[in-house]
Every structure is written in C-alpha cells, then in structure tokens.
Design brief:
The protein is α/β, with parallel strands linked by helices. 42% of the residues lie in helices and 16% in strands. The structure holds 2-phosphoglycolic acid. The site of 2-phosphoglycolic acid has 13 residues, from strand 8.
Length: 256
Amino acid sequence: MKTIIANYKMHLGVRESVALARGVLRGIRGADVLPEIVVCPSYPALAEVRKALARSHVRLGAQNVAAEAAGAVTGEVSAAQLADVGCAYTLVGHSERRRGAHETDADVHAKIVQLHAAGITPVVCVGESAEQRANGSAESAVRGQVLRALEGAVWPRKMPVMFAYEPVWAIGSGQPATVADVLAMHRVVRQAAADALGVAEDEVAVLYGGSVDGENAYQYLREREVRGVLVGSASIKMHEFLRIVDAAIDVVNAQQ
Ligand code: PGA
C-alpha cells in the first residue's frame, strides 16, 4: 500500500480547502484500487473538510497538535480534539515547525505520546539541513531525530509507525532529493525506529517529502521501500496532486 499525504500548510481558507478535497474525490471516482490518501488542511477547515470527505476513502489529517493532553493551554489544539473532529493522522515535527516554532525532539516525543493516546497515527517528519548534508552529518542528524523522538516510547502494537523523510533543503525548493539518497536515508530512519521500538524494520513506514510533484512522484513511489509521499506545494494544485495520485494508482496496480 502507498500513502499520499497532502499538506495544505497555511495556504487555504475553509472554502478553498473544501473545494480542493471535493476535487480530489471527483478525481479518484471510478478508480478500483486506490492508495491511502490523507488531506491535512489548517485547523479551521478540519470540520468542513471532514464533512466533504464523509463516506469516502480519503482520510483527514492535521498539521500539528499540542504537546499537552488538555487544560489551560491557550491557542493549542489537543490530540483528543483532533480525534473528535475526525483526524486519523497528524503531522509532527515538520521542519517549518522545528524552525519557525522552535519545536524540539522532546516536543515531538510528547506529541507522539498524545496522538497515540487519542488513537491518531503520527507522521513524524525528520530530515537534515543543507549544512548537515554538506558536512556529511545527514545520517547521524536524522538518526538522532528519530531516536530522540521515540525515546522511551511504549509503542502500542496496533499503531502503525509512520515517518516522513523530508530533507529541509528539498522542501519547497524545487530541488527534490535523488531516489538513491531517499533510499539511503529511508534505511537510516527504518533502522533507528526499529531499534528504538523493538519492531521489525518492515513495520516502519517511511514516506518521502520535498518538492514532490506530478512529474517526479512515480520514481519515488515505484520503490518498495518508499511507502508514500508527503506533498506540500503540489498538493494545492489540483491537477498536480491528481497526477501524483495517478502515479500511486499505477504502482498499486502493478504490485497487485
Ligand atoms: P513541498 O513541501 O512539497 O512544497 O516541498 C513538502 C512539505 O513541506 O511537507
């Protein structure tokens, strides 16, 4: 199975998010096999997008979650509240949050714990900076992010483990990582997560994210080790996003 996640970031209002989600539903109508598709709009659009997706196979996701369970935490949204509005997935530790909101690996860890308690699958984003890639520390940087995010985590057996390898320099830059680099880094993520959690490497799903578009999606998706893609800019362009979904459909069909 492949998973395609659309991260609308802070680009769209409620109406635009709903229109885009409806467009995805129209675009996949009639397909007999589908990848798992997850749409992550901003918080204010979650409830309306949920209605638009009702009775479809497309799942709802959030872009962030509070590190705390509940209480006097002004401006935050808890995992329980996300579950309440129908989220099945939530991004955690996106590089824009690590950089812009100074989110640490300890925050990422706390968020994973909250999401598990609420029955939501965390999609843990990890990735090295351009500087780390240039000085040869990409692998150790990413391994460290994975290990610190999972440290001490008691992983519920039924919960799938999902990561997104997103090199910071590839996000929104139009410079995607090469397939060879993606495969090498996915191995690093899988090994670190499997060690930390005591699960088999096969149980660790890793997506690729960073300038994925309709043109290049297939080259990643056709690799067995790439469990899917996390799409930013191209996810808010209907035609581009549907091309990515089509690439995944081709791969899923070929693998049946
Ligand atoms: P991009 O963003 O597809 O625009 O590079 C990916 C992401 O930020 O998750």
